[in-house]
Design goal:
The protein is an all-alpha fold. Helix content is about 90%, strand content about 0%. The longest helix is centred in the middle third of the chain and has 146 residues. The N and C termini lie far apart (about 200 Å).
């Protein structure tokens, strides 16, 4: 190891100026020089250390590059696996959707058939109800006509009966008046 350049004479003079004697200053300077030479790194030391650090960095860089390459390969494999699974899932889901679509179409077709049959049935029911209403209407109309004719006949018979009774009453009244008149005349002329 190289030694660090240290101006021992300048250091000794500085110590003597502050009160150290020659022996003390020389001992202090030797101690400091030895400590500096043992603990301070030289340019050569730094160069060796720098080369060692650069070597370790290069090894670490190659290792990290290798790790990243391996991680990228794992990610690609994982991505390919996921893509394959999604493709299989998509095909499976699409198949299930197609089956469900056909099932729903079948259900709608069956419901439409049921609705059409129900519509025909309801139309038939309405036709039968209309026929019943028409028959009922004709029956009621016939009964009203018969009732009207019956009432008309009874009113005419009642009118005839009343006319006869009224005529009889008038006739009786006339006879009464005539009898009273004859009785008064008989009384007056008697």
């Amino acid at each position: 190891m190289e030694s660090v350049t240290f101006d021992t004479l300048a250091a000794a003079k500085t110590l003597e100026r502050v009160g150290f004697d020659d022996t003390q200053a020389e001992a202090m300077v030797k101690t400091i020089s030895k400590a500096v030479n043992e603990s301070v790194a030289t340019k050569a030391d730094l160069k060796v250390s720098d080369e060692s650090v650069h070597g370790k960095i290069n090894v670490l860089d190659e290792s990290v590059k290798g790790e990243f390459k391996a991680v990228r390969a794992e990610f690609k494999a994982l991505d390919d696996s996921i893509e394959g699974k999604f493709k299989a899932l998509d095909e499976s889901v699409q198949g299930k959707i197609n089956v469900l679509d056909e099932s729903v179409k079948g259900e709608f077709k069956a419901v439409r058939g049921e609705i059409k049959a129900l519509d025909e049935s309801v139309k038939g029911e309405f036709k039968a109800v209309r026929a019943e209403f028409k028959a009922l209407d004709e029956s009621v109309e016939g009964k009203f006509k018969a009732l009207d004719e019956s009432v008309d006949g009874k009113l005419k018979a009642l009118e005839l009966s009343m006319t006869i009774k009224l005529g009889a009453m008038l006739f009786a009244t006339a006879l009464f008046i005539l009898g009273v008149g004859l009785g008064v005349g008989k009384f007056l002329f008697s």
